[in-house]
Amino acid sequence: MPTITTTADPIAAERARVAEISQVVARSRGLVAPGILDHLQERACQTGWSADVVRGVLWDILTGKGADLPRPTPPAPAPREPDPNDPAQIREAMAEAMAVRGMHGYRAVNPRHAEFLDMRPLQMAEELLRLRGEPVPSRDPLVIAERALTTTADFPALLSAAANKMLLAGYTPAQPTYRQIMRRRDFRDFRPHHHLRAGDFPSLLPLAEGGEIQVGTISEGQESVTLTTFARRVRVTRQMLVNDDLGAFTDFAAMIGRRIADVENATAYGVLNAANGDGPTLATGNAPVFATGAARANKAAAGSALDIASLAAGRAAIMQQRSLDGIPISIGERMRLLVGPNLEMPARQLTVPVAADQISRENIYAGMIEPVVEPLIPANRWYLFAHQEASPVYVYGYLDGAEAPRVGTNPVQGVDGIEISVLFDFGVGAIDWRGAWFNPGS
Questions:
Q1: Rounded CA gap, 83 and 80, in Å?
Q2: Minimal CA–CA distance to 131: which of 155, 162, 106?
Q3: If DSSP states are collapsed to H, E and C, what string results for 357-387?
Protein backbone atom coordinates (compact mmCIF):
# COMPACT_ATOMS: atom_id res chain seq x y z
CA MET A 1 0.00 0.00 0.00
CA PRO A 2 1.20 3.53 -0.60
CA THR A 3 2.75 5.67 2.06
CA ILE A 4 2.40 9.34 2.59
CA THR A 5 5.47 11.42 3.16
CA THR A 6 5.05 13.41 6.33
CA THR A 7 6.00 17.05 6.56
CA ALA A 8 5.97 19.57 9.28
CA ASP A 9 2.47 20.52 8.17
CA PRO A 10 0.37 17.33 7.67
CA ILE A 11 -2.68 19.32 6.55
CA ALA A 12 -0.72 20.98 3.76
CA ALA A 13 0.76 17.59 2.75
CA GLU A 14 -2.69 16.03 2.51
CA ARG A 15 -3.97 18.90 0.39
CA ALA A 16 -0.99 18.52 -1.93
CA ARG A 17 -1.57 14.75 -2.25
CA VAL A 18 -5.25 15.21 -3.16
CA ALA A 19 -4.43 17.97 -5.64
CA GLU A 20 -1.80 15.79 -7.38
CA ILE A 21 -4.28 12.89 -7.63
CA SER A 22 -6.84 15.24 -9.19
CA GLN A 23 -4.29 16.35 -11.78
CA VAL A 24 -3.43 12.73 -12.69
CA VAL A 25 -7.09 11.84 -13.08
CA ALA A 26 -7.80 14.99 -15.10
CA ARG A 27 -5.09 14.03 -17.65
CA SER A 28 -6.86 10.70 -18.23
CA ARG A 29 -10.19 12.24 -19.14
CA GLY A 30 -11.23 10.95 -22.53
CA LEU A 31 -9.07 7.84 -22.18
CA VAL A 32 -10.94 6.10 -19.34
CA ALA A 33 -14.69 6.00 -18.66
CA PRO A 34 -15.72 8.93 -16.45
CA GLY A 35 -17.45 6.70 -13.93
CA ILE A 36 -14.29 4.64 -13.39
CA LEU A 37 -12.15 7.78 -13.06
CA ASP A 38 -14.49 9.32 -10.50
CA HIS A 39 -14.57 6.09 -8.52
CA LEU A 40 -10.77 5.78 -8.68
CA GLN A 41 -10.24 9.36 -7.52
CA GLU A 42 -12.66 8.95 -4.61
CA ARG A 43 -11.05 5.71 -3.48
CA ALA A 44 -7.50 7.08 -3.80
CA CYS A 45 -8.29 10.15 -1.74
CA GLN A 46 -10.08 8.19 0.99
CA THR A 47 -7.56 5.34 1.37
CA GLY A 48 -4.33 7.37 1.29
CA TRP A 49 -2.97 6.34 -2.12
CA SER A 50 -0.20 8.44 -3.56
CA ALA A 51 -0.35 9.91 -7.06
CA ASP A 52 2.14 7.25 -8.25
CA VAL A 53 -0.20 4.46 -7.20
CA VAL A 54 -3.02 6.11 -9.10
CA ARG A 55 -0.79 6.33 -12.20
CA GLY A 56 -0.08 2.60 -11.90
CA VAL A 57 -3.75 1.71 -11.66
CA LEU A 58 -4.55 3.87 -14.68
CA TRP A 59 -1.76 2.23 -16.66
CA ASP A 60 -3.15 -1.24 -15.88
CA ILE A 61 -6.60 -0.11 -17.02
CA LEU A 62 -5.28 1.40 -20.25
CA THR A 63 -3.12 -1.65 -21.12
CA GLY A 64 -5.93 -4.10 -20.39
CA LYS A 65 -4.19 -5.76 -17.45
CA GLY A 66 -7.06 -4.81 -15.18
CA ALA A 67 -6.74 -3.57 -11.66
CA ASP A 68 -8.06 -4.51 -8.23
CA LEU A 69 -10.69 -1.84 -8.45
CA PRO A 70 -14.43 -2.63 -8.30
CA ARG A 71 -16.44 -1.12 -11.11
CA PRO A 72 -18.58 1.76 -9.92
CA THR A 73 -22.26 1.16 -9.37
CA PRO A 74 -24.26 3.31 -11.76
CA PRO A 75 -26.30 5.95 -9.97
CA ALA A 76 -29.92 5.08 -9.35
CA PRO A 77 -32.26 6.84 -11.74
CA ALA A 78 -33.95 9.85 -10.31
CA PRO A 79 -37.52 9.12 -9.21
CA ARG A 80 -40.02 10.11 -11.81
CA GLU A 81 -42.57 12.68 -10.91
CA PRO A 82 -46.11 11.31 -11.13
CA ASP A 83 -47.88 12.32 -14.30
CA PRO A 84 -50.83 14.54 -13.29
CA ASN A 85 -52.69 13.32 -16.39
CA ASP A 86 -52.12 9.62 -15.78
CA PRO A 87 -55.58 8.00 -16.18
CA ALA A 88 -54.93 5.68 -13.23
CA GLN A 89 -54.15 8.67 -10.98
CA ILE A 90 -57.21 10.54 -12.20
CA ARG A 91 -59.41 7.48 -11.75
CA GLU A 92 -58.26 7.08 -8.16
CA ALA A 93 -59.09 10.71 -7.36
CA MET A 94 -62.49 10.36 -9.06
CA ALA A 95 -63.24 7.26 -6.99
CA GLU A 96 -62.51 9.24 -3.83
CA ALA A 97 -64.83 12.00 -5.02
CA MET A 98 -67.64 9.50 -5.68
CA ALA A 99 -67.12 7.97 -2.24
CA VAL A 100 -67.29 11.39 -0.56
CA ARG A 101 -70.53 12.20 -2.36
CA GLY A 102 -72.09 8.79 -1.87
CA MET A 103 -71.24 8.01 1.76
CA HIS A 104 -71.85 10.36 4.64
CA GLY A 105 -68.77 10.77 6.79
CA TYR A 106 -66.34 9.29 4.28
CA ARG A 107 -62.92 10.93 4.65
CA ALA A 108 -60.91 11.14 1.46
CA VAL A 109 -57.15 10.66 1.55
CA ASN A 110 -56.41 11.68 -2.04
CA PRO A 111 -56.07 15.48 -2.10
CA ARG A 112 -57.03 15.63 -5.79
CA HIS A 113 -60.54 14.35 -5.13
CA ALA A 114 -61.76 17.93 -4.70
CA GLU A 115 -61.18 18.56 -8.43
CA PHE A 116 -63.95 16.09 -9.29
CA LEU A 117 -66.55 16.64 -6.58
CA ASP A 118 -68.78 18.65 -8.92
CA MET A 119 -68.44 16.25 -11.85
CA ARG A 120 -71.35 14.05 -12.84
CA PRO A 121 -70.44 10.39 -13.48
CA LEU A 122 -71.02 10.89 -17.20
CA GLN A 123 -68.52 13.77 -17.20
CA MET A 124 -66.02 11.56 -15.39
CA ALA A 125 -66.54 8.89 -18.03
CA GLU A 126 -65.92 11.42 -20.83
CA GLU A 127 -62.78 12.71 -19.14
CA LEU A 128 -61.37 9.19 -18.79
CA LEU A 129 -62.03 8.51 -22.47
CA ARG A 130 -60.27 11.73 -23.41
CA LEU A 131 -57.22 10.86 -21.30
CA ARG A 132 -56.96 7.52 -23.11
CA GLY A 133 -57.07 9.28 -26.45
CA GLU A 134 -60.40 7.69 -27.35
CA PRO A 135 -62.33 9.77 -29.89
CA VAL A 136 -65.79 10.84 -28.79
CA PRO A 137 -67.24 12.21 -32.04
CA SER A 138 -70.58 13.06 -30.50
CA ARG A 139 -71.63 14.99 -27.42
CA ASP A 140 -74.62 12.67 -27.26
CA PRO A 141 -74.77 11.32 -23.69
CA LEU A 142 -75.91 7.92 -24.97
CA VAL A 143 -72.81 7.61 -27.14
CA ILE A 144 -70.52 8.67 -24.30
CA ALA A 145 -72.17 6.23 -21.91
CA GLU A 146 -71.92 3.36 -24.36
CA ARG A 147 -68.24 4.04 -25.04
CA ALA A 148 -67.47 4.41 -21.34
CA LEU A 149 -69.03 1.05 -20.55
CA THR A 150 -67.57 -0.88 -23.48
CA THR A 151 -64.47 0.80 -24.96
CA THR A 152 -62.02 0.75 -22.05
CA ALA A 153 -61.99 -0.68 -18.54
CA ASP A 154 -61.51 2.75 -16.94
CA PHE A 155 -65.10 3.54 -16.04
CA PRO A 156 -65.96 0.05 -14.71
CA ALA A 157 -62.71 0.21 -12.72
CA LEU A 158 -63.76 3.63 -11.40
CA LEU A 159 -67.08 2.26 -10.14
CA SER A 160 -65.33 -0.75 -8.64
CA ALA A 161 -62.76 1.43 -6.84
CA ALA A 162 -65.44 3.78 -5.49
CA ALA A 163 -67.54 0.84 -4.29
CA ASN A 164 -64.53 -0.75 -2.64
CA LYS A 165 -63.63 2.44 -0.78
CA MET A 166 -67.17 2.85 0.55
CA LEU A 167 -67.45 -0.83 1.40
CA LEU A 168 -64.25 -0.90 3.45
CA ALA A 169 -65.13 2.40 5.13
CA GLY A 170 -68.31 0.77 6.43
CA TYR A 171 -66.92 -2.71 7.07
CA THR A 172 -63.61 -2.03 8.81
CA PRO A 173 -64.96 -0.08 11.84
CA ALA A 174 -67.81 -2.58 12.39
CA GLN A 175 -67.32 -4.65 15.52
CA PRO A 176 -69.94 -7.43 15.58
CA THR A 177 -70.21 -8.97 19.03
CA TYR A 178 -69.53 -12.56 17.95
CA ARG A 179 -65.83 -11.65 17.68
CA GLN A 180 -65.75 -11.11 21.46
CA ILE A 181 -66.61 -14.73 22.23
CA MET A 182 -65.29 -16.65 19.20
CA ARG A 183 -61.67 -17.23 18.24
CA ARG A 184 -60.39 -16.30 14.80
CA ARG A 185 -58.68 -19.01 12.74
CA ASP A 186 -58.39 -18.34 9.02
CA PHE A 187 -58.66 -20.96 6.27
CA ARG A 188 -56.16 -22.00 3.63
CA ASP A 189 -58.83 -23.22 1.20
CA PHE A 190 -62.47 -24.33 0.99
CA ARG A 191 -61.96 -27.84 2.31
CA PRO A 192 -63.15 -28.76 5.85
CA HIS A 193 -60.54 -27.61 8.37
CA HIS A 194 -59.97 -29.69 11.49
CA HIS A 195 -59.13 -27.90 14.72
CA LEU A 196 -57.21 -29.01 17.80
CA ARG A 197 -59.04 -28.89 21.11
CA ALA A 198 -57.97 -28.54 24.73
CA GLY A 199 -55.68 -31.49 25.46
CA ASP A 200 -55.07 -32.55 21.85
CA PHE A 201 -51.40 -31.68 22.31
CA PRO A 202 -49.63 -34.19 24.60
CA SER A 203 -48.60 -33.07 28.08
CA LEU A 204 -44.92 -32.51 28.80
CA LEU A 205 -43.18 -35.10 30.99
CA PRO A 206 -40.22 -34.75 33.39
CA LEU A 207 -36.87 -35.50 31.76
CA ALA A 208 -34.22 -37.14 33.93
CA GLU A 209 -30.54 -36.35 33.40
CA GLY A 210 -29.42 -38.32 30.38
CA GLY A 211 -32.93 -39.63 29.89
CA GLU A 212 -34.79 -40.07 26.64
CA ILE A 213 -37.46 -37.64 25.53
CA GLN A 214 -40.73 -39.56 25.32
CA VAL A 215 -42.73 -39.53 22.11
CA GLY A 216 -46.25 -38.17 22.31
CA THR A 217 -49.05 -38.04 19.77
CA ILE A 218 -51.34 -35.26 18.66
CA SER A 219 -54.87 -36.53 18.26
CA GLU A 220 -56.69 -35.79 15.05
CA GLY A 221 -59.27 -33.09 15.67
CA GLN A 222 -62.72 -34.47 14.97
CA GLU A 223 -64.48 -31.12 14.65
CA SER A 224 -64.24 -29.31 11.32
CA VAL A 225 -65.32 -25.94 9.98
CA THR A 226 -65.76 -24.99 6.32
CA LEU A 227 -65.80 -21.66 4.53
CA THR A 228 -68.95 -20.36 2.87
CA THR A 229 -68.91 -17.81 0.05
CA PHE A 230 -71.40 -14.95 0.26
CA ALA A 231 -72.11 -12.65 -2.67
CA ARG A 232 -74.34 -9.86 -3.96
CA ARG A 233 -74.41 -7.67 -7.06
CA VAL A 234 -75.97 -4.48 -8.38
CA ARG A 235 -76.34 -3.42 -12.01
CA VAL A 236 -75.28 -0.11 -13.55
CA THR A 237 -76.90 0.43 -16.97
CA ARG A 238 -76.29 2.91 -19.76
CA GLN A 239 -79.62 4.59 -18.96
CA MET A 240 -78.64 5.06 -15.31
CA LEU A 241 -75.38 6.69 -16.35
CA VAL A 242 -77.08 9.04 -18.81
CA ASN A 243 -79.74 9.99 -16.28
CA ASP A 244 -77.10 10.56 -13.60
CA ASP A 245 -79.10 8.06 -11.57
CA LEU A 246 -76.46 6.07 -9.71
CA GLY A 247 -78.35 6.24 -6.44
CA ALA A 248 -78.87 2.49 -6.32
CA PHE A 249 -75.14 1.94 -6.88
CA THR A 250 -74.00 4.41 -4.21
CA ASP A 251 -76.59 3.16 -1.72
CA PHE A 252 -75.39 -0.38 -2.34
CA ALA A 253 -71.73 0.56 -1.96
CA ALA A 254 -72.26 2.68 1.14
CA MET A 255 -74.38 0.10 2.97
CA ILE A 256 -72.79 -3.19 1.91
CA GLY A 257 -69.82 -2.91 4.31
CA ARG A 258 -72.06 -2.66 7.36
CA ARG A 259 -74.41 -5.25 5.88
CA ILE A 260 -71.58 -7.77 5.48
CA ALA A 261 -70.65 -7.34 9.14
CA ASP A 262 -74.33 -7.94 9.98
CA VAL A 263 -74.34 -11.10 7.85
CA GLU A 264 -71.26 -12.37 9.67
CA ASN A 265 -72.92 -11.68 13.01
CA ALA A 266 -76.19 -13.35 12.01
CA THR A 267 -74.34 -16.37 10.63
CA ALA A 268 -72.30 -16.77 13.80
CA TYR A 269 -75.30 -16.50 16.10
CA GLY A 270 -77.30 -18.76 13.84
CA VAL A 271 -74.77 -21.47 14.72
CA LEU A 272 -74.73 -20.61 18.43
CA ASN A 273 -78.54 -20.45 18.71
CA ALA A 274 -79.07 -23.81 17.02
CA ALA A 275 -81.14 -26.42 18.90
CA ASN A 276 -82.73 -23.81 21.18
CA GLY A 277 -79.36 -22.51 22.29
CA ASP A 278 -77.62 -25.86 22.79
CA GLY A 279 -75.62 -25.26 19.62
CA PRO A 280 -74.67 -27.60 16.77
CA THR A 281 -73.98 -31.28 17.29
CA LEU A 282 -70.30 -32.07 17.77
CA ALA A 283 -68.69 -35.19 16.37
CA THR A 284 -67.18 -35.74 19.80
CA GLY A 285 -69.85 -37.60 21.76
CA ASN A 286 -72.44 -37.00 19.02
CA ALA A 287 -74.08 -34.37 21.23
CA PRO A 288 -74.64 -30.61 21.03
CA VAL A 289 -72.17 -28.12 22.43
CA PHE A 290 -74.20 -27.58 25.60
CA ALA A 291 -75.75 -30.47 27.53
CA THR A 292 -76.59 -31.38 31.12
CA GLY A 293 -75.26 -34.95 31.02
CA ALA A 294 -72.03 -36.01 32.67
CA ALA A 295 -70.16 -35.99 29.34
CA ARG A 296 -70.69 -32.23 29.03
CA ALA A 297 -72.11 -30.79 32.27
CA ASN A 298 -71.91 -27.30 30.80
CA LYS A 299 -75.60 -26.45 30.91
CA ALA A 300 -77.86 -25.61 33.85
CA ALA A 301 -80.18 -28.50 34.71
CA ALA A 302 -83.04 -26.01 34.83
CA GLY A 303 -83.23 -22.45 33.56
CA SER A 304 -82.86 -19.80 36.23
CA ALA A 305 -82.68 -16.05 36.55
CA LEU A 306 -79.40 -14.29 36.04
CA ASP A 307 -78.21 -13.46 39.56
CA ILE A 308 -75.07 -13.72 41.64
CA ALA A 309 -75.74 -17.33 42.61
CA SER A 310 -76.37 -18.62 39.09
CA LEU A 311 -73.39 -16.64 37.77
CA ALA A 312 -71.17 -18.22 40.44
CA ALA A 313 -72.48 -21.66 39.50
CA GLY A 314 -71.66 -21.10 35.85
CA ARG A 315 -68.14 -19.86 36.59
CA ALA A 316 -67.48 -22.78 38.92
CA ALA A 317 -68.71 -25.24 36.27
CA ILE A 318 -66.28 -23.88 33.68
CA MET A 319 -63.37 -23.99 36.13
CA GLN A 320 -64.12 -27.67 36.83
CA GLN A 321 -63.99 -28.68 33.17
CA ARG A 322 -61.05 -30.85 32.10
CA SER A 323 -59.04 -31.25 28.92
CA LEU A 324 -58.74 -34.56 27.06
CA ASP A 325 -55.78 -35.34 29.33
CA GLY A 326 -57.75 -34.61 32.47
CA ILE A 327 -56.00 -31.30 33.13
CA PRO A 328 -58.09 -28.27 34.20
CA ILE A 329 -58.54 -26.08 31.14
CA SER A 330 -56.88 -22.69 31.00
CA ILE A 331 -59.77 -20.26 31.21
CA GLY A 332 -57.86 -17.08 31.93
CA GLU A 333 -58.82 -14.54 34.56
CA ARG A 334 -61.54 -12.81 32.56
CA MET A 335 -64.81 -14.23 31.25
CA ARG A 336 -67.55 -12.82 29.07
CA LEU A 337 -71.25 -12.90 29.91
CA LEU A 338 -73.36 -13.07 26.75
CA VAL A 339 -77.00 -11.98 27.08
CA GLY A 340 -79.84 -10.67 24.98
CA PRO A 341 -81.67 -7.35 25.45
CA ASN A 342 -83.95 -8.81 28.15
CA LEU A 343 -81.03 -9.37 30.51
CA GLU A 344 -78.89 -6.33 29.78
CA MET A 345 -79.73 -4.61 33.08
CA PRO A 346 -78.96 -7.54 35.43
CA ALA A 347 -75.85 -8.38 33.39
CA ARG A 348 -74.48 -4.88 33.83
CA GLN A 349 -75.52 -4.70 37.48
CA LEU A 350 -73.63 -7.92 38.22
CA THR A 351 -70.43 -6.77 36.55
CA VAL A 352 -70.17 -3.04 37.27
CA PRO A 353 -67.77 -1.85 39.99
CA VAL A 354 -69.59 -0.75 43.17
CA ALA A 355 -68.22 1.47 45.93
CA ALA A 356 -69.13 -0.66 48.97
CA ASP A 357 -68.54 -0.06 52.68
CA GLN A 358 -68.85 -3.79 53.45
CA ILE A 359 -67.41 -6.87 51.76
CA SER A 360 -70.88 -8.39 51.48
CA ARG A 361 -71.99 -5.44 49.36
CA GLU A 362 -69.01 -5.44 47.02
CA ASN A 363 -69.51 -6.61 43.45
CA ILE A 364 -67.01 -9.47 43.40
CA TYR A 365 -67.23 -10.06 39.64
CA ALA A 366 -66.49 -6.47 38.61
CA GLY A 367 -63.45 -6.54 36.33
CA MET A 368 -63.56 -10.35 36.07
CA ILE A 369 -66.67 -10.78 33.92
CA GLU A 370 -67.44 -8.51 30.96
CA PRO A 371 -71.03 -8.25 29.68
CA VAL A 372 -71.71 -8.67 25.95
CA VAL A 373 -75.23 -7.67 24.88
CA GLU A 374 -76.43 -9.09 21.56
CA PRO A 375 -79.97 -8.60 20.16
CA LEU A 376 -79.76 -12.00 18.43
CA ILE A 377 -79.78 -13.84 21.77
CA PRO A 378 -83.49 -14.53 22.32
CA ALA A 379 -85.63 -14.65 25.46
CA ASN A 380 -83.78 -14.89 28.79
CA ARG A 381 -80.93 -17.14 27.69
CA TRP A 382 -77.45 -16.33 28.90
CA TYR A 383 -73.99 -17.77 28.36
CA LEU A 384 -70.69 -17.53 30.14
CA PHE A 385 -67.52 -17.91 28.05
CA ALA A 386 -63.89 -18.22 29.04
CA HIS A 387 -61.57 -16.02 26.99
CA GLN A 388 -61.67 -17.28 23.40
CA GLU A 389 -57.89 -17.44 23.12
CA ALA A 390 -57.58 -19.57 26.27
CA SER A 391 -60.33 -22.09 25.53
CA PRO A 392 -62.14 -21.56 22.21
CA VAL A 393 -65.61 -23.08 21.87
CA TYR A 394 -66.58 -21.46 18.57
CA VAL A 395 -64.20 -20.33 15.83
CA TYR A 396 -64.59 -18.11 12.79
CA GLY A 397 -62.32 -17.10 9.97
CA TYR A 398 -61.73 -15.89 6.43
CA LEU A 399 -59.83 -17.17 3.43
CA ASP A 400 -56.10 -16.42 3.76
CA GLY A 401 -55.26 -13.40 1.63
CA ALA A 402 -58.92 -12.39 1.28
CA GLU A 403 -59.77 -11.27 4.81
CA ALA A 404 -61.93 -8.40 3.55
CA PRO A 405 -64.83 -8.39 1.07
CA ARG A 406 -63.83 -8.11 -2.59
CA VAL A 407 -65.44 -5.89 -5.22
CA GLY A 408 -65.39 -6.68 -8.91
CA THR A 409 -67.06 -5.63 -12.17
CA ASN A 410 -68.51 -7.80 -14.92
CA PRO A 411 -70.27 -7.00 -18.19
CA VAL A 412 -73.98 -7.76 -18.39
CA GLN A 413 -74.79 -10.24 -21.12
CA GLY A 414 -77.15 -8.71 -23.68
CA VAL A 415 -77.47 -5.40 -21.82
CA ASP A 416 -75.56 -2.11 -22.13
CA GLY A 417 -74.20 -2.01 -18.63
CA ILE A 418 -72.01 -3.60 -16.00
CA GLU A 419 -72.57 -5.34 -12.70
CA ILE A 420 -70.77 -4.52 -9.49
CA SER A 421 -70.42 -7.70 -7.44
CA VAL A 422 -69.24 -8.21 -3.87
CA LEU A 423 -67.92 -11.53 -2.59
CA PHE A 424 -66.53 -12.58 0.74
CA ASP A 425 -65.65 -15.92 2.27
CA PHE A 426 -66.55 -16.59 5.89
CA GLY A 427 -66.68 -19.69 8.04
CA VAL A 428 -67.91 -20.29 11.59
CA GLY A 429 -68.45 -23.41 13.67
CA ALA A 430 -68.10 -25.13 17.02
CA ILE A 431 -64.94 -27.08 17.85
CA ASP A 432 -65.34 -27.89 21.56
CA TRP A 433 -67.72 -27.75 24.50
CA ARG A 434 -65.12 -26.86 27.13
CA GLY A 435 -64.79 -23.24 28.15
CA ALA A 436 -68.47 -22.22 28.26
CA TRP A 437 -71.69 -22.48 30.27
CA PHE A 438 -75.29 -22.11 29.13
CA ASN A 439 -78.36 -21.24 31.16
CA PRO A 440 -81.69 -21.25 29.26
CA GLY A 441 -83.05 -18.61 31.67
CA SER A 442 -86.31 -18.48 33.54
A1: 9
A2: 155
A3: CCHHHCCCCCCCEEEEECCCCCCCCEEEEEC
Per-residue model confidence as pLDDT tens digits over 282-301: 998 899 999 999 889 999 99
Least confident stretch, 211-220, 227-236, 316-325, 378-387: 211-220
Ramachandran angles phi, psi of 177, nearest 5°: -70, -20
For the chain, the domains span: 10-62, 87-174, 261-439
Residue 6: per-residue pLDDT: 47
- Phi first, then psi, for residue 83 (nearest 5°) are -75, 115
pLDDT at 210 over 80: no
| Contact criterion met (CB below 8 Å) for 372 and 177 | yes
- Sign of the dihedral defined by the CA atoms of residues 104, 109, 115, 116, in that order: negative
Chain segment 134-184, per-residue pLDDT in tens: 877 677 888 888 888 888 889 999 999 999 999 999 898 889 999 999 999
Chain CA centroid to CA 17, Å: 60
Indicate if the pLDDT at residue 419 is higher than 70. yes
Q: CA 356, CA 174: separation in Å to the nearest integer?
A: 37
Q: What whole-number distance in Å separates Cα of residue 224 and Cα of residue 397? A: 12
Interval 229-238 mean pLDDT: 87
Q: Are 433 and 223 in contact (CB under 8 A)?
A: no
* Dihedral over alpha carbons 79, 81, 87, 92 (to 10 degrees): 90
Residues 339, 373: contact at Cβ < 8 Å? yes
Predicted confidence band of residue 221 (pLDDT cuts 50, 70, 90): low
User: How many H-runs (helices) and E-runs (strands) does the chain carry?
Assistant: 11, 13
Tell me what percent of the residues of the chain surpass a pLDDT of 90: 42
Q: What's the whole-number average pLDDT of the chain?
A: 84
Helix (H) or strand (E) holding 53, with range, is helix 51-62
The CA distance from 386 to 146, in Å, is: 58
Helix (H) or strand (E) holding 436: strand 436-439
Nearest-angstrom CA–CA distance, 387 and 300: 20
Residue 136, burial from CB neighbour count under 10 angstroms (0-12, 13-18, 19+): middle
Which residues, in sequence order, are CB contacts of 155 under 8 Å at separation 6+?
Answer: 124, 125, 128, 148, 149
Round to whole Å and give the CA distance between 95 and 168. Answer: 13
